[in-house]
Specification:
globular, SAUR_fam, 18% strand, alpha+beta, growth regulation, 3-stranded mixed β-sheet
């Protein structure tokens, strides 16, 4: 007698609508953030730095952000207040 296991979906690749993935720091930790951050001047400055360092070619599907993880977490926590 056998049984079926539920299908396992790679949750790391599923993004809720209105969110996108960024990879931060030396270890490229993955964060999923709202697209509304793209309108914020602080986040736009961070994206400009990312463009200078990494360009726009991101084969893994997410943007790479050149800053420390703790700095990124601090920035995004501030953006949540807007």
């Amino acid at each position: 007698m056998g049984f079926r296991l539920p299908r396992i979906v790679n949750a790391k690749r599923i993004l809720p609508k209105g969110y996108f993935a960024v990879y931060v720091g030396e270890k490229q930790k993955r964060f999923v953030i709202p697209v509304s951050y793209l309108n914020n001047p602080l986040f736009q400055d961070l994206l400009s730095l990312a463009e200078e360092e990494f360009g726009y070619d991101h084969p893994n599907g997410g943007l790479r952000i050149p800053c420390a993880e703790d700095l990124f977490v601090d920035l995004t926590s501030r953006l949540n207040g807007y």
